[in-house]
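hey team, just a heads up i'm posting the complex here instead of the shared drive bc the drive is being weird again. everything in one block, sequence lines first with there labels, then the predicted structure for the whole assembly after. its two chains so it's a bit long, scroll down
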Amino acid sequence: MSVISYQEAALQAVAEEMRRDHRVWALGEDLGRGGVFGQYRGLLEEFGPQRIADTPISEATIMGASVGAALVGTRPVVEMRFADFALCAVDEMVNQAAKARFMFGGQARVPMVIRQPSGMWRSSAAQHSQSLEAWYAHIPGLVVVAPYTPADNKGLLKSAIRCDDPVIYIEHKDNWALEGEVPDEADYLVPLGPARLARTGNDLTLVTWSKMVGVAEKAAALASLQGMEIEVIDLRTIWPWDQELVFASVAKTKRLMVVHEAVQVGGFGAEIAATVAEHMAHVLTAPICRMGAPRAPISYAKPLENQLRITPEQIVATASRQIGH
Amino acid sequence: MTASPELQREMLRQMQTIRRFEERASDDYHNGAIYGVVHCYIGEEAVAVGVCSALNKDDQIISNHRGHGHCIAKGADLNRMMAELYGRQDGYCKGKGGSMHIADFSIGMLGANGIVGGGLSIVTGAGLAAQLEGKGRVAVCFFGDGASNAGSFHESLNIAARWKLPMLYVCEHNSWAANTSSRMTHARDDVASRAAGYGIPGVVVDGNDVLAVYEAATDAVARARAGEGPTLIECKTYRWRAHTERPGAADPRPLEEIAAWMAKDPIQHLVDDLKQQQGQYSDAEFQALDDAVMSAVAAAVAFAEASPFPAPEAALDDVFAD
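-- predicted structure starts here --
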């Protein structure tokens, strides 16, 4: 085990996979300078400009070219710089990458990882702060991953690179410096799909992902002081999501809360809430609760941006009402 | 490079195959045997055949919604193509793609694409991979004058030119983007002139003269394989039929314009060339070729009819890799 950052963990993941498999390469804007968050630092020197390719600001063609390069047998890691910029390449993700395998009758594979640094970070305002995982979860053919811990960022990114399907890989920009223990072995993989039990508790199941896992853990610690034990599930993979672990937890706690940074309306929390309601309404002792951002573009000024953030205190207050404490 | 007499005859066979295949597909669409959309390529056969004749089997192409000609020219199997149009289990895509998504990765046909301009960036990626692998493979995109106004055209040409990718961008300029004339939509009608902005050759060629297309493509392929980068080839051509086969679909094109282009039939053009160059080529030979082509198309229809529809639950297969 080493204690390294979320950013360093991702860097190790890409470097190890590029060493292991010559078909893996990365492309995007400013990769030659280490990427906008330093998550590619040193890779140009090790792998050269063909495998760490600096592109023009042409998101649609970066994405489309990656689809083509994946179709013919390479395994591109596509850097979108900010998740918001990937919207310039939605056709290539949704109409091309997600559908190629299916519409060609299984002839094609599209092994590519689409890295989309997401979420609110340092007053980045409306076009550099969004969390859009629910959009991608809606599209058949896409895998959607949103790691929280450094260990998961390494193990899941390596699994994503080895996956034969297009993976939307959502790293939270506020997490780059987050440190944690990460296994050292070169074949450390975290499988796509299973969630992680971040904290156990008997009173309420809280499902969340990405940066909100940390907020939820703080909330659970606060709640514990008040005598409420919250079980925190870090979903890690948004699609396919781990229904088994969530169902098992809800069967125990009989209460469910879903928390995400994304806009609450139409968020992926709604899918989890509806699925649990469909299957487990009979065991629930309180209405399911969702917490997400208000349906407003993300502001610049700190007090405005903070107005959109979910805090541990808000979670505790809501949990307290739900538990009837 | 000039095409050998044998290659010219093969080109004629392929062009006639495209035409007869599509005539049958059109008939079967209108009589209900084919239910989904069909976009016919008739009149433009010389482009697909001229370009693909300059390629090796492992070179890769991407097509568009009007893709039957490119498939046939790259060597696709008529039976599996027709079965796909019929929506059958033995079609190229097991009935999941239809006319607009036929692909055969084993012959370097990376798929027709239903999004206008969608193939440009994807094939640029195939060119990137070809360069990465360094085996001398070339990637080719077929697109129309309509797609040349999509952003992906400019992004792709810029990247391919900057990185000297081994590629051909083949614009089939048929002057109509669906039902709108290129005169109304292009700042300059010549698409090839845009190549200058990217510092690559932009070649205009008579797209109804298969030998001229072949020569232009051969030069561009040599340039690509030599590491000198992409070429934009603009083939002036025309589709004889409406944008789509849908009954009652609008076709605003002037009848005299259609007639003028039909008088420049690319197949007749090659037949005339063959007769001139090789005095021995006769109408009887062409008749024999056409008989063989008609038999192949009839066999493809029989194959399609004999193939079962896919099981309904297959609608959920192939979404993710195994």
